[in-house]
Amino acid sequence: MCGIMGYVGPREAAPIVVDGLRRLEYRGYDSAGIAVHDGTALTVTKTEGKLARLAGLLDEHPVAGRSGIGHTRWATHGAPSDRNAHPHTDPGGEVVVVHNGIIENFLSLRETLAAAGAEFASETDTEVLAHLIALEYDGDLLEAVRRAVGMAEGAYALVAMCRQEPGRMVAVRMISPLVVGIGDGEMFLASDVPAILHHTRDIVVIDNGEIVDITADGWKIEKLDGTPVERDRLEITWDAEQAERGGYPHFMLKEIFEQANATTETLSGRLLEDGRVVLEDVHFPPGFVAGLDKIWITACGTAYHAGLVGKELFERLLRIPTEVGYAHELRYSDPIIQGTTLTLAISQSGETADTLAAAGLAKERGSRLLALTNVVGSTLSRESTDVLYTRAGPEIAVASTKAYLTMLVGEYLLALAIGRERGVLDPAIDATLVAGLRGIPAKIGEALAAEEQAVVLAGRFAGRDDVYFIGRGLDHAVAVEGSLKMKEISYVHSEAMPAGELKHGTLALVTEGTPVVVVITQGDVYDKTVSAIQEVKARGAFVLAVAYEDDEQVAKHADEVLRIPRVPDVLSPLVSIIPLQLLAYHVAAARGHDIDQPRNLAKSVTVE
Ligand code: G6P
Question: How many CB atoms lie within 10 A of CB 583?
Fold first, then answer.
């Protein structure tokens, strides 16, 4: 996820573009840059670091010009650095491009260009687009962009300008968002409405597979095949602050609703049409996977809970013994780790001090270190031999949601890759995973429909002091994360445990009306979980079940049911967590809490 901004009109472009980028910084902030056209030449200014650094550079060396494009980056290809910052140009500096998203076939495009003698100034997929557009250019930027994107595959949005046509911008949307703002004799273009809202409320939304041609006087939208598109304008009524959150009251809710897209991004270019799995930054040496005798997962907080799902998957699907350890415990322990161990360090930020220390210990002991992280160029990614980026985009709310879900997606991909290489994956399971993962973004979309019910149920939970979460196997792993969500933002005490453990102590706390949330999706232990429901019901508990939409049994046992779409049991965590996130959110909202910044907590804990 990155932020794109463009301007063409009678005013100086640079300050308008930089100001727009500032309002898009929530989409990424590891580097930033702009390109401005002064009527004869294009000038690019870009730097690693936050936007303030770019603004400082522009104060020292101002650039004049009435059209410009800019970018605030959240790295996916190539670490954050000056040279990987956008905009990118072709070698002749004729075409300049900013881009949000992923060009899946960029490596093969790059190889073809390199074979023809092209030299690249960065490691990004974007630069390939600049080369392609320049090669295709014969006096009409619109046609050059159209031909170039015809060669690219992926989910992205891009904007291009060229030296020979000042005052013109051409943009394409392939999944990643793009809006046009219509001013009085001036036009704006951005990834999201907040960037342009204080200039105009008159907006045109670009749809997937469309190309838009923009000058100061107007805009024209076509499908990529050239069919003209008529699009109504929208009048935006949100205020600027609301708009930054996409109209949602909190970033947490916005991020919950971004999960289908985030999952699509995580899978993009990794689970291919033909079912192959390509993990671009994971390069196990020959024989390593065959000789692997242990997977050691280390993490903290929500990332640790993602690890609990990983353990279930790796042991069940790969039959490789897997341990999950809190990083703050493991760093002071004497773990049994060696060259035949794969250490999987999971961290949204890639900067959690304890996780870094535990990962360092694993490396010292000769383990191969694989980072599963959301932040390209983070310390963890740099210190690891292999990396799997989650591509959830920046997560602003302290309570992690989309980062968690994309960590799980990463673990499923890893299970497929390792299972195939070891030859241990049952072909039927393999096919189930591939088909199931492909369909998961749509299922996540369906699961989000639980929100309406979560709002009503939240009223029942908001006045309680304690909530219990139970489940078995994968359901237990999800229950633990659901419980953490509840406590960290609603401040209601909550505890999660395997359903069978309840009777060994916690049952003493269950009295009339005690809320117990039961995750019940696993067919092989279904009846066992029903027994646990009966145990708590017998003590007067109020039972809320999270169950499949076609589960006709559960309503006989539970007081309320939050329904999730049917998926193969092995994939259920990818949907069953969603109603729990929504429930926690709405309980916290009902209690009037500062949801995005809960008391005493921090997004990233970089001290011990
Ligand atoms: C903090 C955050 C949690 C997060 C944990 C680990 O405690 O509040 O939401 O899960 O750190 O963070 P990491 O960046 O390593 O995933």
Answer: 27
Q: Which atom of ligand 1 is least distant from the CA of 400?
A: 9
Give pLDDT < 70 ranges for the chain: 1, 240-243, 607-608
- The single-letter DSSP state of residue 319 is -
Residue 102, pLDDT score: 85
Ligand 1, residues 604, 606, 608: which to mutate, most atoms within 8 A of Cβ? 604
CB 386 within 8 A of CB 371: yes
In three-state secondary structure terms, 19 is helix
Cα–Cα distance for residue pair 217/183, rounded to 1 Å:
9
C-alpha dihedral sign at 209, 213, 269, 272: positive
Measured in degrees and rounded to the nearest 5, phi and psi for residue 570 equal -65, -20
Q: Measure the CA–CA gap between 292 and 362, rounded to whole angstroms.
A: 15
Q: In what order do the strands lie in the sheet with 368-373?
A: 322-326, 294-299, 341-347, 368-373, 386-389
pLDDT of residue 602: 81
CA distance 440 to 443: 5
8 Å CB contact between 352 and 604: yes
Q: Identify any residues that bridge with 45 across adjacent strands, giving them in sequence order.
A: 34
Q: Which pair of tokens denotes residue 466? A: 């304690």
Instruction: Report pLDDT for 25.
Output: 84
Q: Hey, what are 363's tokens?
A: 């490396």
* Residues belonging to the active site: 2, 603
Nearest CA to ligand 1 atom 11: 604
Interior angle at CA 470, CA 465 and CA 474, nearest 5: 140
Asked if 30 and 80 touch (Cβ cutoff 8 Å), the reply is yes
Tell me how many degrees the CA angle 237-398-578 measures, rounded to the nearest 5. 75
Cβ atoms of 387 and 281 within 8 Å: the answer is: yes
H or E stretch covering 241: helix 240-244
CA distances 275 to 80, 96, 135, 269, 417, Å, are: 31, 35, 33, 11, 11
Beta-bridged to residue 188, according to DSSP, are 7, 181
The pLDDT score that the predictor gives to residue 608 is: 66
Residues with CB under 6 A from ligand 1: 300-303, 347-349, 352, 355, 398, 400, 601-605
Report the alpha-carbon distance of residue 115 to residue 109 in Å, rounded. Answer: 10
Atom of ligand 1 nearest to the CA of 303: 16
Amino acid at 23: R
Domains along the chain? 3-242 (3.60.20.10), 245-425 (3.40.50.10490), 449-590 (3.40.50.10490)
Residues 313-362 have pLDDT tens digits of 999 999 999 999 999 999 899 989 999 999 999 999 998 989 999 999 99
Going by CA atoms, what residue is nearest to atom 5 of ligand 1?
A: 301
Q: Which of 252, 255, 302 to mutate to test the pocket of ligand 1 (most atoms within 8 A of CB)?
A: 302
Q: How far is the CA of 375 from the CAs of 6, 286, 392, in angstroms?
A: 26, 28, 9
Whether 393 contacts 1, CB under 8 Å:
yes
Do 305 and 480 touch, CB atoms closer than 8 A?
Answer: yes
